[in-house]
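retry 2 of 3: previous attempt timed out while embedding flavin-adenine dinucleotide. Reduced batch size to 1 and resubmitted. Inputs unchanged:
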Amino acid sequence: MFNNKLSKILGSDRLKKNVPLAPHTTFGIGGSAQLFYKAKTSKELIKAIKAAHKLKIPYFILGGGSNILVADRGLAGLVVKVQSSKFKVQSYKIFAEAGVPLTKLVEIAQEHSLSGLECCIGIPGTVGGAVAGNAGAKNQWINQCIKSVTILDKSGKIINLKKDDCQFGYRSSCLRDNSSKIILKAIFELKRENPKIIKEKTNKFLEARSNQPKEKSAGSIFKNPANDSAGRLIDAAGLKGKRVGEAQISPQHANFIINLGRAKAKDVLALIKLAQGRVREKFGVELELEIQLIGFN
Ligand SMILES: Cc1cc2nc3c(=O)[nH]c(=O)nc-3n(C[C@H](O)[C@H](O)[C@H](O)COP(=O)(O)OP(=O)(O)OC[C@H]3O[C@@H](n4cnc5c(N)ncnc54)[C@H](O)[C@@H]3O)c2cc1C
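retry 2 succeeded.
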């Protein structure tokens, strides 16, 4: 069995079987991973991916689980949770491994009077997830201060990509297909700034965030269509507060679906389909998912 071979490589005490994924997501939803491994260093991350390739085991890279909906039936194959968390500050640059929490990265920048990451304040997840999805807020994105990204490619090579090679777009990059390019670390190039000004900028982003729902969610479900907002369209379609099971379109912000307690992925999916259908019917607009559906057909 591939499990035995994999546990020889990764360690039988470290490779876990049938691990519920719900606690590893901000939605608190999802079935179990057939195999689960926490990569605590970049070396362990590389080892796990190379082993999965060698043994032809399908795998999924999990950061903070804050931008995904995992299917109720769970995931076959291996889930690698990235927890590599080294970082280094050199002059106006920060080198951060993929598993560094994004909130920590913002904190480090503030401590060193470095500006450029203020838009990431309050965004959950890891550096890897944020870089892959080009996280940001209010038309400011993390890619604006990325200098380069080090990845592990399909053939097992470690490659340094310049910012322009990453094809960053609105919540997208060529690094977000979750199997062919694994982010190991990134270098952020920031600007020295007066701490008072950094604090002011940060507070503006925090303020904008203060009206977001506090319940379990995965943040914005849909991307905003050009010159409009997904939340406004869903609200205008009469769906604010709509419930399926214990999933609900937030009464506070219609682009958030919240887990009221024991929501199932199928409930969230039903609300996603309902919102897409109603908005298409009423306004002729196709809502595109911002979150990723994992383990569905
Ligand atoms: C309350 C709330 C508010 C939010 N607000 C915002 C916001 O303002 N702006 C915003 O942009 N997002 C927001 N989000 C969404 C989410 O936090 C971000 O998209 C975050 O950057 C995802 O990071 P993660 O580590 O949780 O990724 P995950 O959800 O774990 O993974 C997302 C994708 O990235 C891939 N990935 C993760 N790590 C790596 C890696 N090392 N290499 C390659 N691929 C990788 C995964 O395979 C997956 O495809 C919010 C979420 C919540 C819950």
